[in-house]
What does this fold into?
Amino acid sequence: MTPLTQQIIYVCSDAVGETAEAVAKATLRQFSSEHVKIKRYGHLKSEDEIVRIVTEAAGTGGFISYTLVQPELRELMKEESLKQGVRAVDVMGPMMQAYVDTFGSYPKREPGLLHSIDDAYHHRMDAIEFAVKYDDGKDARGFVLAQVVLIGVSRTSKTPLSVFLSHKGIKTANLPLMPEVNLPEELKPAPGRLIVGLTMQPEHLLGIRTERLKTLGLPSSAQYASQERIIEELKYAEDVMKSLNCPIIDVTNRAIEETAGIIIEWLYR
It folds into this structure.
């Protein structure tokens, strides 16, 4: 097994590489990834650069996430990674091919065209970085700076929903609610900020938490996945949401996109 200190995701692009890096960062948020780092190579122009990066990834046991619009570089990345046994994820290629196959048009093949330097693009990237920085209530300052604050008990889709909203350019922070932890002073209604409560039916939450314990290799008998604990947490969360007078969404069997659509409508109406 590759040593923990050498776990690397290589982000490669013939432009800046921010799209591939944003996807990599969103992926890392779903794992215990404190020993994984991202190494970005942008503005790639030559075959030698591709070969060198793939060789480096093979040596460290990492994998590659890439956005290469130049067809010759993209094909070389596929061939070289296959030859050296390195997993390489083409972030943009399948979407471009779907466009060609469906609409019969062809890409301009200009590196960086996707990222025309405009206000909307920078706004979106700022929102993505914000969601990562202020995930899980790690810094209470985020509640003051956010456009949307999501609150709810553990496993009610707060993090993936934050990431989804950030890709819409919405600065989103979230806070897990637990009876034993006092609410931060920064969490209070304020003009220009929407606090949204997320809840879930107890039996559904029980199933999700039980599966989570299995994934972590922990016994299903842990208090985290007990019906009594879940009901206690949900009741506490409900009381908090009522005290804040915030809208509540039941996310049971609801897609992230659907929940995000409701929040966006509330935010801009």
